[in-house]
Amino acid sequence: MSKYIFNNLTDDEELNFSEDAEVFIFPTSFAQQRLWFLDQLAPGNPFYNVSTALRLTGSLNFTAFKQTFNEIVSRHEILRTRFVMVQQEPVQAIAAESCANAPSLTIPFPLIDLRNFESQERETQVRRIATAEAQRPFNLTTGPLLRVKLLQLDEVEYVLLLNLHHIVADGWSIGVLIRELGVLYKAFVEDKRASLPKLPIQYADFAQWQREWLQSVGVNGCSPLQTQLAYWQKQLDGISALNLPTDRLRSAIPTYRGAKQFLELPHSLTQALEVLSCKEDVTLFMTMLAAFQTLLYRYTQQEDIVVGSAIANRNRSELEGLIGFFVNSLVLRTDFSGNPTFQELLNRVREVTLEAYTHQDLPFEKLVEELHPERDLSRHPLFQVVFSLQNTPIEALELPRLKLSLFDFDSKIAKIDLEFHLWQDLETLKGEVVYSTDLFDQSTITRMLGHYQILLESIVANPKQRLSDLPLLTKGERQQLLIDWNNAKKSYPDNKCFHQLFEAQVDKNIGATALVFGNQQLSYKELNIRSNQLAHYLKKMGVETESLVGICVKRSPEMIIGLLGILKAGGAYLPLDPSYPQERLNFMLKDAQVSVLLTQEKLLQHFTEFSKPIISIDKDWATITQHSQENPTSCVTLENLAYVIYTSGSTGQPKGVLIEHRGLSNLVAAQIEVFQLQPSNRILQFASLSFDASIFEIVMALGIGATLYLANKECLLPGQSLLQLLREKAITHVTLPPAVLAVLPTESLPALQTIISAGESCYEDIVKRWWNSKRSFFNAYGPTEATVWSTVAEIKSVSEKPPIGRPIANTEIYILDKHLQLVPIGILGELYIGGEGLARGYLNCPELTAKKFFSNPFNSKKGARLYKTGDLARYRPDGNIEFLGRIDNQLKIRGFRIELSEIEIVISQHNNVQEAVVIAQGNLYDNKRLVAYIVSKSPPDKTIIELREFLKEKLPEYMIPTAFVMLDSLPLTANGKVDRYALKAVDTVSHSIDKAFIAPRTPIELTLAKIWAEVLNVENVGIHDNFFDLGGNSLLAVRLLDQINKQFECNLPLSNLFLNQTIESLEIALNSQTYSLSRSSLVPIQTNGSNPPFFCVHPIFGVVFPYYELAHQLGINQPFYGLQPIGIDGETPLNRIEDMASHYIKALRSVQPKGPYFLGGWSFGGWVAFEMAQQLQNSGEEVALLAVLDTIAPIKSNLPSFSNTLKFILTTVVPYMWPFFLDYLRLITAPSKNQINSLTSRLTNFMKLVRYSFWESLTRYFQREPLTRSLQTNLSLHFIQKEDTTVNLISEKSKLRLLSESAIIPMLRVFYANSQAVINYVPQVYPKRINLFRTKVQLNIAEGETSMGWDQLAMGGTEIHHIPGNHLTMLRKPHIQILAAQLRACIEKAHLK
């Protein structure tokens, strides 16, 4: 064995062996080095645990079993290996077996007896323990890296839990271990010598050999490393990340939480796949891989599909019997260009796979180091999906009087986005999918497994089909997508054009007000007469069916009269906005061949070159009124043209969209149905007439007999002007773009019944601003080409991005891939629209019309067409559609596909951001950068700094904008949408990060630069230089952080370097950690346990000591943290609940960076916990449980009067506070049973310690010396009667934190600040359920409401738990035991969900 002894360790090395220990030091293998680094990156993680469970049935010889495992550990050095740093390199360290202080070969072998549990509960306990063991981390430095645990279920049934760290074992190793278990156990039972041959080498030999062999130069002058690396560099050049659609946004740092699902293919399908593989001269693995990559191709529509696949890497006989980490990862990249047949794809996969096998010796870790992919903690390097096929049947292992079989359980860990593992089990193929629950829902993976099976069946049925034509969906899914969710067919009996529907309303509501503009009003009768007169005049001027009449009129009643007059005359109107550039107006008039122009005298200057008839509706009104007041007769039908709207064109010139009367009439009917319109409604006309939203508003009012309110441009500016208009006119219905809703003040508008958001993407924060239980909020979607709108959703939840809903009446929606195939639920595709609202096409653009409008392949009706929107969307499982932006709004940066809307959503979640737009600037191919335009609520400089840190927690580095431009407001188009072209013209130079060299400016930056220069071996380092771009790698990152932590005496985690790759950002992280270490509001009460931690906020005085008993009662498996206020130790306290919540969230994230979170609070603390839950939900985190302990809801009717408060203090607080005082003293002095006597002697000193404390104040108040002696006596009795368990929960650090709760002056300041916070707090509606734990004894204000007012704030309702006692005694025995039991049940229930 190639061993060497390292005896000259330097003073700062991390080996902890005694001085006389003979320690064997070995280099790590490349694979071990990477796993060691990953452990440094996320210390104490269980992600790389290799876990197996075996069910043992029969008579077990426990002694022989223990001997067996100890012998296995003795045989395999790797199981006795630890990993330490020597000369800033990780190494394997093994104590010599001959050494006197060599480690014992006896490993712990606990036996847990579960026989007392009922059968069903016993199985539950086994799975719980197995999962907990699999999630228990290993310490690579101290070892051991093998854990064995035996669970006894009954007299003849056991479950063996085996857990090893991946750094010492792989999947093959488990097989080796089990085989040796069989041989050795049999020998020990029969008291014979085992027949296992001596191992020829140990893993450490392999690690040494691997390094030497890879770098040895062959006869061709190249080393294996160089040869294989050259292949992989060529093969993986320009590799793209797989953009697999997910249910949730990818966070900057994954939690590695996972789940698994299983698959079993029918025997007939398995046989057919084997036959196909044989026929095509490929292995079954290649066939299954090709099918799996086809599934990914269909899901992502990417032609460059990359998956990882494990290979045993034991291609030498000496390695086959070793336990160790040999497995290597191969990157299998397949080209899907040209939409090949499956047969053609198989040939490509065969070639790729065989070449990969030929070059399998290059360690994946070395490949990553050499290829230098984008450093991103949120993704596995080079691939995010893994595929494998184990084709060796698993045989049941027979031991003497004992049978072994696999016991399946879920470790709930996912190292990567998706793992797809198949194996052959006798006559069928079975599979297991392990997936990240950060990204995927259970239902998504279930659908994926179904699609894989359908795809396999399609392949064996016809492998010569093109990949795009292979069926993917089940019959049920096709029924759902084509029929169930497209069942919007409605028959409207009127069958009339809009102007005819208006005339019908005139007959019904002849005297009703139709139109209001300032002080002007027109009744339905008056509006009809004037539009009739104009219609007759237009007909006289030659207007007839299909005639195009231009209308350029400022906001006024004349605009509506003109529009109705044109339609009544049989013509179609073309809106011309007088604010448009003259060149654009001239183009539209010429392109549309307008026959007549209707305008106003003051606008004639725009049309000096127009040669056709011009009517000035104001100047010529006297002439117009000479014509008939009766409804004109015309031959207009639903197939005739109603209007033409010009929209932006990709050629640089606008294009005219031709809309027919059928679509307009359908629009009216659908609006009445969806919005439940009534003649009493008052509807605002906000949009410019040149924007099709204007006709949406006009027909909404005039089609039902309601009143349409017009206003001049100044009154419609988003701000106080618009708000005043809405309030004064008592508007009931508005249609506004999100950009306007985002800045419009959310003041009281009691008359406003319905808000329709339309025109662009609507985000959660806009819904939260405007939604309430007395108002309807709709999100509408539709292009101009489909008569304004096509889908609509009524938003009833504020917890997620608003969907665009389902198709409106007589509309069909299809989400298709680029080959016009239906995409499954959750998969991105292009949105196509069919139905009665479809435009005729584009004016004078036959080629574009043919490209965008074509025959509907899903509808056999003659003439049925589809419109290609260019919009990305996907179906949600409930049938609602989620809009995902424009296809052309996607871009790639450094190989990653990016949705700009995703970045905008995350930026908008920051508390100081009012609005955000992100655009890409720079060269299309290699110099593209992201620029964010922000409207801030706070000083710009502060916002940018905060925003950068905020985004680092939310987004990968490549998605964070390089520049932030702060604006007072976002520029809007005439239609109210964000003007992205105007944004591109804004000068961003002064706001951008200067990529030129900038020397360190502060002492910290200077120190960091020196460390970087030393570690990277470079001369100069600027504050914007990227560590990895300068040559940094994983090992150098560890060295760098080690030096930084020593220099600054801090404990910055390695992950911080990946989140802060420049000196400038790293300095911010250092300063942030220094601050958080100096003062945290988090008080650890119980830190042990595998359950998610419960965070409980202080009551109004700021103390958390009452929570210690609750933590004890919840049990040792429930971590519990109290949240203490700023100010309890003398600082200035916060006086806004929103600020407290934000501060506490930062504190709890130091313990739990990602959700789901479990929050609670007693009394006042319930309000803060409620606000914390709101902010976490708003930031995209999940709150699994919100528990309020005897807290009234923060609503106006609950604010107590002075008399009620005084009564509560005298009847509840004063009589029941003394036991809490005794508990407080007991906790901070923390006696054991033999310390009680010394406690009373220390009481005097303690009283000195808490001078000016609340308790001393009480002593002075009573002014009785006997109180101290009485207190000493009572304390002794109190402590003798108390158990010590609760006391043992508390750490020394927490005792010091508790001492701060004894100072009266800071406590009163906190009380005052919290009281102010109560008065000023304005709550928002919470989108989920609230759990209320309440007592019967309440202030009068809450007596009549069982939910204590929370039902008014909880969209998900209030779950009420009744606790005996009063507001104080609920936290003391015996009542606290009931509280704890109910709270524990709620935590477990939420955790299971």
Can you lay out the helices and strands and say which pair or pack?
Layout: E1 4-5, E2 23-27, H1 30-41, E3 49-58, H2 62-75, E4 82-86, E5 89-95, E6 111-113, H3 119-134, E7 146-154, E8 157-165, H4 171-189, H5 203-215, H6 224-235, E9 258-264, H7 267-279, H8 284-300, E10 304-311, E11 328-335, H9 342-358, H10 364-371, E12 385-390, E13 397-399, E14 402-406, E15 418-425, E16 428-436, H11 442-461, H12 475-482, H13 498-508, E17 513-517, E18 520-523, H14 524-540, E19 548-552, H15 557-568, E20 572-575, H16 582-592, E21 596-599, E22 614-616, H17 621-624, E23 641-647, E24 655-660, H18 661-675, E25 682-684, H19 693-702, E26 707-710, H20 720-728, E27 733-736, H21 738-743, E28 754-757, H22 764-770, E29 776-781, E30 791-794, E31 806-807, E32 811-816, E33 829-835, E34 841-842, H23 846-852, E35 853-855, E36 865-875, E37 881-886, E38 890-893, E39 896-899, H24 900-908, E40 913-921, E41 929-936, H25 940-954, E42 963-967, H26 980-984, H27 1003-1016, H28 1034-1048, H29 1055-1059, H30 1063-1078, E43 1082-1086, E44 1094-1097, H31 1107-1114, E45 1120-1123, H32 1137-1149, E46 1157-1162, H33 1164-1178, E47 1183-1189, ...
Parallel strand pairs: 6-7, 12-15, 17-26, 19-20, 19-21, 21-22, 25-26, 27-28, 28-29, 41-42, 44-45, 44-46, 46-47, 47-48, 48-49
Antiparallel strand pairs: 1-2, 2-5, 3-8, 3-14, 4-5, 7-8, 9-16, 10-11, 13-14, 15-16, 17-18, 23-24, 24-34, 29-30, 30-31, 32-33, 33-36, 35-36, 36-37, 38-39, 40-41, 43-45
Helix pairs in contact: 2-4, 7-8, 8-9, 8-11, 14-15, 27-28, 31-42, 32-33, 35-40, 36-38
